[in-house]
Amino acid sequence: MNYPVWYLPGVGGGLLMAIIAITHVFVSHFAVGGGLYLVLTERKARRENDAQLLEFIKKHAKFFMLASMVYGGVTGVGIWFTIGLIQPDATSDLIHTFVFGWAAEWVWFLVEIVALLIYYYCFDRMDEQRHLLVGWIYFLAAWMSLFLINGIIGFMLTPGDWLENRNFWSAFFNPSFWPSLLFRCAMATLLAGVFAFFSTALIGAAGFRQKMTRYTSRWCLLSLLVAGLAGFWYLQVLPGSAQQVLAISPTIQRSVIIGAFAVLSLAALVTLFTLWRPAWHNLTVALLVALSSLLVMGAFEWIREADRRPFVIYQWRYSNGIAVSDAERLDSGFLAQCRYSREREVREDNLMAAGAELFRFQCYACHTLGGINNDLRTRTASASFPGMVNYLTTMHEKRPFMPPFIGNELERQALAAFLVGELHGKPVQRTSQSEAHPGETLFAANSCDMCHEAELVFNWAQGKSLAEVDQGLATLSQIDSSMKDFSGTEAERQALAEYLLDPHRTAVAAAALSGLQVLEEHCVLCHDAQLTLDWAATRDAEAIRHGLLHLSQINSSMEDFAGSEAELDALVLFLAGQAQGGVQ
Amino acid sequence: MNPLVPSPDLLPVSRAMLEALLLLTFPLHLLFMNALLASVLLALWGHYRSAEPAAQRLSYRLAQLLPLLIAFTINFGIPPLLFIQVLYGNFVYASSIVMGVVWLSVIPLLLTLYYVAYVYDFNFWRLGRKAALLLAAVGLLVLAVAFVFSNNMTLMLKPEHWRAYFSADGGWFLNLAEPTLWPRYLHMLIGASGVGALLVALLVGLWRRQDPAVADLARRWALRLFLVVLGLQIVAGSWFLLALPADVLLLFMGRNSLASLIFVLALLLVALLLYLSLRQRFGLVATGAVLLLYLMSFLRAFVREGYLAKTFVELVEQSPQDLTPLLLFVVTLVIGVALVAWMVRAALACRE
Predict the structure, then answer these.
(1) ipTM of the complex
(2) Global confidence as pTM
(3) Which of A59, A153, B196, B326 has the fewest CB atoms below 10 angstroms from its CB?
(4) How far apart are the first and last CA of chain A?
C-alpha cells in the first residue's frame, strides 16, 4: 500500500519466492550439515590413516564449495532481492528490527567463505590438526548463520512478546526459536548425507563405495528421526489460530500429503538401497534421494509460510502488506490512501479499473490470474456478483487464512465487479441509491445520530411492535424533552419505523431469498456448485439439512453452515428441489 | 515532498551511526569489485599478448584469483546493501520494484558469471583459445551487473522517474532518460579498472617467490592500465560532474565545506598517485588507492544527500534506543576478524 506492486499477474510473487527460497534453503542447510560431515569424515580418515577416504573427502569438498558457496551464497542474496520486491513493507519491518542480527550473520558468512576456501585450496598443504581446525571453524560459522537466520524467520510466524515490547531479543528468541533450530539442524545433517550420496556413487572401488554409502545412510536415518521429533515439537508451539489454519488451508493440506509421501520415499530409499543393499546404490538413487528430500524441505517451508496466513508477520502485517493497525483507517477509503493506486475513488465510469487496483493491492500478493499458484480466475469462475460482494464481507471468517477485505462499501463492490464482471464477463448489478430502504434515507436525512449514537435508536426500537415504534416516533418529545416529535408524513414515519426495527433488511431479504443465491454466497467460492448438487441429489430435505449443519464431518476443511435460519431453509428447499428435478 | 516516496520506518539506532557503518563498509565492497574488474581486463590482455613469456602464466594466476574476488565482492556487498535498506529503504525498495525484472536479473547474472569463472579457472590449460572467450563472457556479465546497479542507484534518487510505474508495472524499466546514468556508469567502471589494477598487482605479488616474472609483469601492466584510465577518467569524471544538477554540483564548489574539502583532497590524492606510480613506489600507490576509494565513496554519499535533500526525508529514530543488538554485531565482528586473521596466516604459511 505504501509501495508500488511489481505486477506479473500470470506468475505471481509467491512462485518466484518459492523457487528461489526453497532451492536456497535446500542448499544452505546442506552448507551447514555438510561442514560437519566433511570435518567428521576427515577426522575419521586421519585417525584410521585411510588415504582412500581422505581423497574422497577432498573431492567432496570441491563439490561442496561449488554447491554451497556459489549457489547458496548467491541465492541467499537473491532472497533479499526477492522479498524486497514482493513484500517491501514486511522486508522493511524485518530490516529495521534485525539489522544488527543480519550484520552479525554477514560476519559469519565471511568467516564461512574464508574457511571453506582455505579448507579446499590447502587440503594437502596444511598441517593436519590445523586443517581440521579450519574445517571446524567453517562448521561453527555456518551453524552460527543458521542460528541467526532461524531467529529472524521464526519471528515472522511467532513474533511473541515483540508485539507488545518491540524488543530485539523478544523478537529473536521467539516462541518457535528452539524447536525450529533443532528441526533445521536435523535437516542440515540429513541434507549433508543426501548430497554425500552423489559423491559416494562416484567412488570407483566397489568395497569402499559400499562402505561409504552405508556410513552415509546411517547418518541420514538418524537425522530423519531427529527431524521428525523436532517437527512434532515445532507444531506444539504454534499459536492456536495457526493450528487452525494448519488444519483447514487447502494448500497446506496438499503440502502435507506431498511431504508425507516424500518422507516415506526418502526413508524407503535410504533404508533399502543404501543401507540394506548398498551395492544397488548409483547416481539415479542419489538423484531420487535428493528429489525426495527437496520435496520434504519444500513441503515444510511451504507449510511454514502458508501457516502464517493471513499474515506475513503474524498479527502485525497481513499477507498483502497492509499493517493490521492501518486496517481501520483504510476502511474509510482504501484507494484514496493508497500511494500507488491509479484510481483514487470508485465512480460509475471506473468500476472495473478501481476493482483491478484493489485486486493488485489486496489479492495479488497470494493470487495469480491464470498462473500456477492460487489462480483467482478459476476460483471465481462460479461466483455471482451479489455472492462475491457477500463473500468479500465475510471471507476472513469463513476462511481464516485470508485477510479481511479492507476498504469501503463501494470499493468492495468494485473488487467484486472486477472479479466477476471483468474476469468472467458476468452481469454486475449494483444496489443503486434508489433501491435503498426509504426508512434508511429518512434516518440519514433526520440526522438522529448527530445528537446521540445511532445504536441508541436501534436498541430502543428492539422488542417493540411496529405500531409501538411508530407511536414513539410521533411523540419523541415525551421520551426526552430535548427532542422534537417526528415531523414527516405518516407514510414516512411508518417507513422509518420499519427500518429501525430491521435495519439490515434481513426479513425483506429472507422473503426474497433464493436458495441459489445462498449457494453462491456460501459454497461456490471454495468448490464447484455441481459438487453440492451431486451431493444433494441422493438425499431428502431432512438429510440435506442435517448434512449442511454438519459440513465439517464431510470434509474437515469446511465449516458447518453458519448462515441464518432463513438462509438454511432457502438453501435446503433449493437443493431438495434440484434433487427432485434431477430424478425426474 | 514527492507523494510517491513511501513513508520511512523508525531507525533502530541513530542515523549518524548507520551512515558511518554504510560508509565504512561500502568501500570494502568497491575494493574487491575493482580488483575483479581489473583482473578480467589484465587476464584478457594476457591472452591477447600470449607471445610474451610470462603473459599466459599471469592470466592463469588471475584465473585462480577470479572466483575468490567474486566471492568477496558479493560478500562485502551485503553490509552496505543492508545499511542502505535501513536508511533509504523507502527509496530503494520503490525504485527496485519499478525495475523489478531488471533488478532481480542480477541474481542469475551473478550465478552465471560465478560458474563460468570456475570453469575458466579449473580448465585453464585445457581450454586453449576458448579460455579468452569464456573470460570475455565473465567480463560482459560483470559490466551488465554494474549497469543494473547504476540504474537502480540513480533511479532511487529520482522519485519523479518512478511515475514510469503507472504506465508499465512489469518491472522492465531502465533509467535511460537520466542524464547522469552513463557518465556515472563510465566514471565508476573506469575508476574501478585503474584502482583495481593496482590492487591486483599487489595480490599477484603474493606469488613473487614462486614466479617473479609474473609478479613483475603484473606490476608493469597494472601501472600502464592505471595511467591509461587516469586520462580517460579526467573526461568521464568531468562529464559526470557537469551532468549533476547545479545544486548538487555546487556542494563540491564551496557550498558545503566538508564536501568541497574531500573533493579537493581526492583530486590531490589522484595527482599524488600519478607521481608515486611513475616513481614505482608500489606499496604506497596501493595504500593511496584504498584511501581514494574511501574519499570517492564519501563524495558519492554527498551526491546522494544532495539529491534527497530536495525530496525532504524525515527519518525518525526509535526511542529509547536499544544498543544491545549493535553490541551483538560488534562482538561478532571482533570474533570473526580474529578467526579470519588466524586462518589467513595459517594459509599463507602452508606449503606450495
Answers:
(1) 0.95
(2) 0.85
(3) A59
(4) 54
